[in-house]
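Bug #2210: token dump truncated for Penicillin-binding protein?
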Amino acid sequence: MIRKLLTRAAIFLAGIGFVAGSVLFALAYFTVDIPDPNAYVNSQSTIIQYSNGEEIGRVGTQNRQIVPLSKIPLNVRNAVLAAEDQNFYSNKAFSIRGIAQAVIDNIVKLGQGRGGSTITQQYAKTAFLTPERSIQRKIKELVISIKLENQLSKDQIFESYLNTIYFGRGSYGVMTASQQYFNRNVDQLTNSQAAVIASILRSPGLYDPMFKEGNAERLAARFEYVKNNMIEAGWLTDEEAAKMKMPKIAPRSTSGQLSGPKGHIIEAVQKELAKLGFSQDQLLVGGLVIKTTLDQKVQQAAVDAVNKFYPSKAPADLRIGLVGIRPGTGEVLALYGGRDYLERQLNDATQSITQAGSTFKSFALVAALEQGIPLASMWNGDSPQIFDDAGKPYEVSNYGNESWGQVSLMEATKRSINTIFVPLGIKVGPTNVVDVARRAGIPESVAMMPTPSIVLGTSSPHVIDVANAYATFAAQGIRSKPFLVTRVLGSNKGVLYEATPQTEEAFSREVMADLTYALKGTILGGTGAAALALGRPAAGKTGTSQSNASAWFSAYTPQIAASVAFFRDNATQSLNGIGGMTSLTGGSFPARIWTQFMKKALKGEPVLDFPAPSNIGGLEPVVMTSGGVQKPEE
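Reproduced locally. Full output below:
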């Protein structure tokens, strides 16, 4: 009697539970909306490219590259089905039998058995739900799974799943997983590699052999499980299976997307996109394609040049910035902001500042030429000299306190004579020197005081600012606004943004021709003689600040203008002694890096010269060739 009562009570409670569960499920079915599947699957990382379309890196919360099912080979599809849901194409959204078998299998195999979720459930859970463990979430998973099956074909669900599921190593989807584990695209995977990808899918932390000790054994067992299931389903012959051996798996990358110099590029591109109005959300999941101005060959030339001439036993706080710009357009062709973005997030090409030193003498020279002061004019180059600075004595010395006597402005430029350029700046007016610097491209954000010391580069611009100013000289007086982003494509390949160079005439061509003639002399036996090894026409200026706290070389050819700067975190700390040099000046390491950079960047490009000077005051023009210096023919 008691047993009958208990049985009836159990049946009654079960019935109550069934009814309650059915009501809860029905309520969920009519209240839970299925999110747009494409909104998740098509949200992918933003790709940043060189100007030639080659990839620089990606921005986004997920490293994923979407590929259509037709591009995913059968061996990969079958391996995943064998590992996760062998009967996917014949079963329903969820399988009660599969769940029950999974429970039994995991009890027998101590938690190492099969999973109970269908591929549809896994996709619903991955794409639309949080990882919380609760009855409510499970019900939502089942409801979304059913609705997915009603709205999408099996192929559509499987394609979305293969592009969405996490494979470890920060990769989502079979394409990026193939690249992460085997350094190849998904359509190049062998049967063995496909089985490994499918095996790791279940739990990357347990099966990736490079992740932790013991995973290799687990992967080997899972590999055999997948292989046997493929044989059982008729997707693999015994002969094919016998040839399958555990393939070599690529080591885990410890570098990351932002490691090395390219991290500074990716960050700089993001900052420019933000100024253009693109939100962070768009960059993270918008699937944008960003084409930059960066030339792959020129960028590699910059990295190689810095690496080649990076001083041995350099202090940890040595900073090097390099920027190359196309004259006349403002396109940034190369940007070197530091050795490793992950170690230091400050970009030494676009964010760090340091005293510009004698690179500012070019601005005084332009002001002089605009006022009709010729390069042949003679000046007193003795050292030291005392000048008036708003009623106060201002003592100026030359490098090494060397006295030069009476020399021309042309020679003063070649030798970078301080005791000539300070009085030159006073004569043309410090305010006019500042005006020239602004017109050339030094932005308003860089503080410049119109005092006699302005010509010695006491102001602290960014490397990109000085590079852009010298690009104005190279473009015969046409100033351009530097930019990195040329085009932004949306996920549907529509053009969301197209850059237009912003240019303006800042100086006359005649003044620029005379300036370039003088700056050629810096390289033809002057302080920038290291750049003579380039073997093609070039003009520029060295820059060394007081106490050798910074060292620059800024120069140009008709095709590229570039600036290289050396400095340390402490603006007053000297560079002397670095690289075994008693005095590290702009004509040493910076000029060597510039020359090496230009050699590779211009390899294969035509040799071009600058326009002839017009007002050199009796000085005889010189022609620069790979063989040295020649006087022009009469």
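Output looks complete on our side. The radius of gyration is 34 Å. Marking as cannot-reproduce; reopen if the truncation happens again.
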